[in-house]
Amino acid sequence: MILICVCAAAIGVSACGDDAERLRILATTEIAADITRAVAGPDVEVDTLLPSGASPHDYAASAKDKAAIDEADLVVAWSPRLEAGSVGVSDYSRFELAAGEADPHIWMDPTRIAAQLGELADEMAATDPTGAAGYRERAATYARGLRRLDRELEQILSVVPDERRKLVTSHDSLGHFARRYGLEFVGAPFGIAPESEPSAATVADLIERVESEKVPAVFAEDTDDPELMEEIAREAGVSIVDDLLVEGFGGRVESYEEMLRFDAERIAEALAG
Which pairs with CB-CB distance under 8 Å and at least 24 residues apart come from 228-236? Predict the structure, then answer.
């Protein structure tokens, strides 16, 4: 009995030690967290900073958030252009998936993420050298999956005729998606970050462009107030899709890949008519 108790105690100490030594990564958004988990694997603790449905553009880190940042071995973020209000200007060990990008929404092009995975794996390996081989192997596997997804999205959108391949969105977040899949970005009432109200002249000009360029439909993100896009659609006499998933999963999907597939299907259906 004494021997069993000693062994159990030893196992308990070892388990606690292993748990304490687990690499802890904090990702800013649920999209970044999903990408990070695919590379990190099951033995790494990956948490998400922003709650589901929160916009990274205007989210302010709480005291609890800052404590979580301090406790993490690595923070995976996008860019201060996206997350300046939450963690973009903080001083901590981080890897930025969209470093230096004028438009940080690079996840809307899966090939851009595939190209970043090797560097993300290297960053994890630098923090945890014992797991280096696993991080790099998972990164390569996930990259191949994202390139397959890219071909699938291209096929989904191929049903849209050339003259109808035009995007009007609530804010300028689909630029990378449009360039990758041969869509023309006509405009948005809000810029890269939906921070300030557009002027009446900006809205009127966009309505005129929708009419003159025969844009089939306009789109709003599920986290944006659809009221303005509804007005634009009504004035221009076109339909509106108001549930695109761009900065989170919206409770509708469970992964980054499912999110892109959802958006491609919604866009293809609305533009193809």
Answer: 228/170, 228/189, 228/198, 228/203, 229/170, 229/189, 231/203, 232/168, 232/189, 232/203, 232/206, 232/207, 235/207, 236/207, 236/210, 236/211
Instruction: Please write the tens of the pLDDT for every residue from 135-164.
Output: 999 999 999 999 999 999 999 999 999 999
Entry pTM: 0.89
Residue 249 near residue 259 (C-beta atoms within 8 A): yes
Alpha helices in the chain (DSSP H): 2-21, 30-40, 63-71, 80-83, 110-127, 132-157, 175-180, 200-212, 227-236, 256-272
* Cβ atoms 176, 106 nearer than 8 A: yes
The amino acid sitting at 84 is A
Other Cβ atoms closer than 10 A to 69: 20
- Give, in order, the Cα–Cα distances in Å from 52 to each of 6, 103, 136, 173, 226: 44, 22, 28, 18, 19
Give the span between the Cα atoms of 257 and 98, in whole angstroms: 18
Distance CA 128, CA 125 (A): 5
Q: Three-class SS of residue 145?
A: helix
Asked whether the beta carbons of 143 and 121 are under 8 A apart, the reply is no
CA distance 23 to 264: 35
Return the SS3 of 238: coil
Task: Report the sign of the C-alpha dihedral through residues 46, 261, 77, 38, in that order.
Answer: positive
User: 82 and 88 in contact (C-beta within 8 Å)?
Assistant: yes
Q: Catalogue all structural domains in the chain, each as residue range(s) with its CATH number.
A: 22-150 (3.40.50.1980), 158-272 (3.40.50.1980)
- Tell me the pLDDT tens digit for each residue of 51-105: 887 888 878 888 888 889 889 999 999 998 888 766 654 556 789 999 999 999 9
Query: Whole-angstrom Cα distance, residue 177 to residue 185?
Result: 10
